[in-house]
Amino acid sequence: METSKMEQVIRAEAADYRIRSRIEHKYDVLTQNEGEEILFQIQEKEPVSALRLKPYSAAIRRIPALPRNNRLLSMADMTRTDTSIITLTGENESYQRRALEAAIAYQDAMGIPCIFASGEKEQLLTEYGFGTVLKLPSYRINQELLSDSLLLQARISGSIEFVPSYIKIAALRRNGLMELSHFANTVLCRKYGLFMIRGAVYYEKMLQELEADGGGIYQIMEFGSLKGYFAVDGKGEVKESIFENDLECERYLVKQNNKERYVMARAGNLSRLLCYIGSKGKVTIALKLADESNPANNGCFIWYLDENGSRIERIAQKDEQIFHPELNVTMSQLSSFLLGYDKLKESLKFDSIYVIRPVFLNEI
Description:
The protein is of the alpha+beta class. The chain has ten helices and 20 strands. The chain has helices at about 1-25, 95-110, 120-125, 150-155, 175-190, 200-210, 245-250, 270-275, 330-340, 350; strands spanning about 30-35, 35-45, 45-60, 80-90, 115-120, 130-140, 160, 165-170, 195, 215-220, 225-230, 235-245, 255-265, 280, 285-290, 300-305, 310-315, 325-330, 355, 360.
């Protein structure tokens, strides 16, 4: 068994090497691993970084979206898949454009369903098929309830009683990483259609970075049971929070309405992404797609959907003149729709599609 796993790793690394070599040659870029990330660089006198790509393991809800037998959703209702987050670096936009084309082509070839990015450069990303998929609120600690001295006391003593006395604020210790990971993934799979899976290593790294900055991860306990947590830096800015009950979140944290961030996404490999999109009953849609970045995706298609997923079939070029699409759509518009942010058309047919909604993505 170990030999078989090793062979799979070797084959995967060889396939990645071949794909990256082809991408580097076609787009005149360099790729380099740096920790968990892949740097896309442009060669000058020295390589100049233009984009960072970080792979993530994500959970996407199985279709149909609602569980049977009136039970709570669990990780058994999720499918594990790979995705990635890209970050544009440097100031040279022409370098960023070349790196974007290369990164999108790389993720397509690797079969990655979707790619995420911060919406700070919305116009540029839209030109490369990214659409808005999430409005991410920003929070600060409710200082009237959770003063700096109270949080410091929790970090020193481990936990302190709150008001009422059955509530405790507990600072996360390294022996609680697995329990927090289980709690977070359980809550997220009940609320969201897509999220990045959180493991013990994820929280260990986060805790190390926050503690170095004077912050920490604090858990809200009621009668000994975990009800939520928030990760805060030394300035009181909340980096991540997950609560069973959204009203509890609003009690401990204050939303900063002027600091909302937008998350954008596009299909990496469109066929792989459509596998996760189903419909109530059989649905057929004639569409014309224009991909702002990858001309190979342009054309006329028939989109077939049912409760097991969906797929598209290209219409032969000779038949396009007599093809009458009911939908003309760009990749950025389609990406926003597939990830549950925008509607494509007011229609019962489109309302019957199980899109991936809602998305939870605090990593950007």
